[in-house]
Amino acid sequence: xxWLRQLFSRRRISQDLSEEIxxxxxxxxxxxxxxxxxxEDAWQAARQQFGNIGLIEEKSRNVWAWPSVDDLLFDIxxxxxxxxxxxxxxxVALLTIAIGIAANAAVxxxxxxxxxxxxxxxxxxxxxxxxxxxxxxxxxxxxxxxLLLSPSMYFTYSDHNRTxxxxxxxxxxxxxxxxxxxxEQVRTVSVSDGVFETLAVAPALGRSxxxxxxxxxxxxxxxxxxxxxxxxxxxxRTVIGRNITVDSQxxxxxxxxxxxxxxxxxxxxxxAPLAFDRxxxxxxGFGYHGxxxxxxxxxxxxxxxxxxxxxxxxxxxxxxxxxxxxxxxETWKITPTIRPLKQQVIGNVGELLWVVMGTIGxxxxxxxxxxxxxxxxxxETRQQELAVRTALGAGRARIVxxxxxxxxxxxxxxxxxxxxxxYAGVRFFVVFGPxxxxxxxxxxxxxxxxxxxxxxxxxxxxxxxxIPALKYSGQRGTSAxxxxxxxxxxxxxxxxxxxxxxxxxxxxxxxxxxxxxLMIRTFKALRHVDPGFADAPHLQTVRISIPGSLIxxxxxxxxxxxxxxxxxxxxxxxQSAGFVxxxxxxxxxxxxxxxxxxxxxxxxxxxxxxxxxxxxxPGLLQTAGTRLIAGREMTWSEVYGLQTKVMVSESLAREMxxxxxxxxGKHLREGPMMPWHDVVGVIQDVREKGVQQVAPEIVxxxxxxxxxxxxGLVYAQRTVTFVVRSERAGTEGFLNELRAAVxxxxxxxxxxxxxxxxxxxxxxxxxxxxxxxxxxIAGxxxxxxGIIGIYGVMSYTxxxxxxxxxxxxxxxxxxxxxxxxxxxxGTKLTLVGVxxxxxxxxxxxxxxxxxLYGITAxxxxxxxxxxxxxxxxxxxxxxxxxxxxxxxxxxxALRYE
Amino acid sequence: xxxxxxLKRQPMHGYALVQQIKRTSDDVLQIEEGSLYPxxxxxxxEEFVKAEWGISSTNRRVRIYKLTAAGxxxxxxxxxxxxxxxxxxxQVLAPGEL
Lengths: 897, 98
What we know:
CATH topology of chain B: Arc Repressor Mutant, subunit A
Shape of chain A: globular
Helix content of chain A: 40-55%
CATH superfamily of chain B: Winged helix-like DNA-binding domain superfamily/Winged helix DNA-binding domain
Distance between the termini of chain A: 58 Å
Structural class of chain B: alpha+beta
Radius of gyration of chain B: 16 Å
Strand content of chain B: 15-25%
Structural class of chain A: alpha+beta
Distance between the termini of chain B: 32 Å
Oligomer: heterodimer
Helix content of chain B: 55-70%
C-alpha cells in the first residue's frame, strides 16, 4: 500500500520540495548579504552555487516517480485524446458496448440477487426445507412441493430427530380482518413452534411467537408483518398488546416483524400459531411445509437418513382412527429429500435465469466482435500514425500497450455508461419480470454486480482490443508506412480476421434467434391449449370466505353464497355468475383424495389413486365457458336437498368407464362406509395447474353436502371463487358495483383476489412469456448487431476494392458480374456462419428443453425458418454495398488512386 | 552516507546540512548545493530519514530531516562495508609490501 500512498502524495511532495529549495536560496542569499553583498549579487551567487534549480527539482521528483504508472497515465491520456479525435467511431463503439454491458449487468444483477446471494436469515446456509417425495401418492404430492408434512409427522420429527437444532411446520392461508374501516382479507401464515426459532430473525417490535403461544383452543396471538403494520396501523408503536379481530375472533398483537421478512417465499400480513392439539392429531393431513435448521456439521444426507429412520416410528405412533391401517403409507413410498432452503425458494427459476444470462452473454460476444471489427478498420486507417510513432522511437510493446489501453478505456467508459443503463434495466426486470419470480423484492444492483460490470467491461475491452493489437504487432513498421501510401492492394491476410469475426457473429446470432424461435413456437403451442375456460378477459373473479365464526350454520353459508350470486347477476351487463372452490391456475391449495366406483372391485389394502376434489355451484360451467361433455349439471334444488350427485372430469370418466357418456349414471364414493353418489355429468378437462401441466382427474362435488366422515353433519365450502361473465369485467365502475352487491348481502365479507381470468392466465404463463421477451430481445439485438457486422465488412471490402472494381468495369465487365462477386463473398461468409450456428444450436438448445412446450429442442421448422431468415437478411445486408460497387465510376476510381 | 552520518549527530534542515558537510569536509568536496536535494528525496523514499516542517535558528520555515532507525542501521552497514573497502584499498596501496 506504500506505493499507493506515495502515488497520491506526489503533488504534495513536489510542493514541499519547491518551498524547501526556495527557503534554501533565501537563507543563502541572506547569509551572503550579511557578508556584505548586494541583494542581487547575493541572489545570483546563491543560485549559482545551488545549480540548475529546474533540473534538481525534476531529479528529486523522479526519485518518487513510478515509471510504469506514469507511462500508463500517458497512454490513458493519449488514448482519450485519440478517442475524442474520432467522435463517430467512439460514439458507435461506446453505444454498442454500453448496451451490451447494460444488458449483462442487469441480468447479472438479477442472477446475483435471486440465485447467488444467501437468503435473508442469519446463518442461512444451515436452513433446509423438509421436502419429501411420495411416488405412491400421485396427485397429493406434486413435483414442486413434494408431499407436505402432516401435524403428526411434525410431532414425530420434532420430538425424535438427531440432526436439527430446531424444526417447525407452516402453512399459508387467508383470514378476514374486521372491525377496522372496510373488512379486509389478509394473507396469513400459521406456524408451529420452532418456525420463528429456526428462521432466527429478531422482531422489529415486541416478540415473535414461541412455545407459550402454541396452546390449542386458546384465543391466540398474532405477529404483524412490517408492511401490514405500516398499512393498517401507520407504524403505531403502541399496537403491541392491542386486539385485532381475525375471522371474528379477537387476537392479541404481540409483535411486528422487520421490513422484508418473509416466511421462506411467502409474503404475509399476519402470522398466527397453528396450536396443534396432540390429542386430536391423526396420521393424515399433509398440508404443511417443513422447515429446519441443521445442527452445525450435520449434512443433508445425515438429515435424510435421520428422517427415514423416523417414518416407521411415525406410522406406529399415530393412527387415522379405529380400523384404519397406519401402514398403508408404506405404499406411498415416502422418501425425505431435504433441500437447502434457498433451493426451495428459487425453485426452477434458476434454469430460466441462467438461460437468459447465457443468451445475453452471447449478445455481448457479438457486440465485442462488432467493436473488434471497428477497431481493426481503425487500426488500419491509423497505420500511418502508428508507423510515425514507431519511426520516432516508440517500442512495439509500447504501441501495442497503447492500443490495448485505448480499447480497455473504451470498454470501461462503455461499462460506466452501461452501469447507468443497467439500473434502468433492473427496474424493467422488476416491473416486467414474472411477478411470481422468487425474491423479486430483493433484486438490486449491489457491489458484486458493479464489480462484475467493471471486470466485464475491462475484459471485453481487452478481448476486442487484443486482435487488432496483435495484428499490428505482427507487422513491420516500414511496410506499414509504405502500404498506407497508396497502391499496394490489401492483403488477403488482413481480411481473415474480419471474416472469422463475421462468421462467428452469424453463428452466434443464429443460436440466439433459434432459441427465440423455439420460445415463439412454445408460446403458440400454449395458446392453442384449451385451458378449460373461454373468453378469459370477460371473466371477473373474486374470492370470498365466510368463516365459521361469522356464520356458523353450513346451509346458511351456501344460502348466502347463492344470494351473492343473485345480486351479482343483477348488476347491469352481467350475463351469468357462478362459484367454485377454485378456478384453474388460481394456485390455491387444493384437496385430494381417493374414490371408489361401485362397479369396480377393490382389494382390501389397496388405496385408489388420489383425485382432485372441487366444489362448484350450478351455473358455473356456463359462466366460465367450460364444456359439459356428457350428462347435465347439478341443480340448486339437488344442492339444497343434499342429494348425492357428483360430476367428474373427462379424463377420470375415460379412465374408469372408457367413455364420457358411459360414466353418466354410474356411482362412486369416498370410502367403504360412505354413501354412493350418482355421476350426473362429465366436464371437459381443465388445466388446473397451468397450461403446461397435464390436466388432473377431478371429482366435482356440490358446494354443500353431508360430511362423509361425521354422520349427521353437513359440510359447506366456505371459501370460494365467484366467477362473473360480463363485458365490463375489470373496469373500476364494475368492481365498485361488485363490492356493493356483495356487501348488500353481508357487510363483513372482504373481497380478495379481484382479477379477471386473463390475469390469472397471464400469470400462469408469465414465466414462458418472460423468457420469450428476453430471448426475443436478445435475438433481435444479435440479428441487428450481426447484420451491422456483415454490412460493415462488406462495405469496407468494397471501398478497399474500389480500384480493382473500377478496372474491371473499365475493361468492360457487366455490372451484374460485379454485383455477383460481392454478393458471393457475403453469401459465402453467411453460409459458413449458418453452418456453424446450426451445429452449435443443435447442442445448445437442448439446455432449454424444460422451458419448451409442444415442440422438441430440435424443432425442424424453427431451424429451417430461422436459418432461411438469417441468410435472407444477410444477403440483403450485402446487397447494399454490392450495389454501391456497381456504381463505381471507373474514371473516378482510377483517378482517385 | 555523509548525509546520514551528519544527521546522526543531530537533525537539521537542508541548508544547514549543506553548510555542515562543506565545513566538515574542509571544503574539499566541492558539490553543487542543490544536488543535496535529490539525494535527500531518495533517502526519504527509502525511509532512512524523515522530514518535518519546523522553524530554523534563523526563524525560517524549513524542513528538518531526522535519521530513522532504519537509516541508522543502514548507515552502520554502509560504514562497515566502506571501511572494509577502505581497508582493502589501503592494503593494496600500503607501501613496503610491494
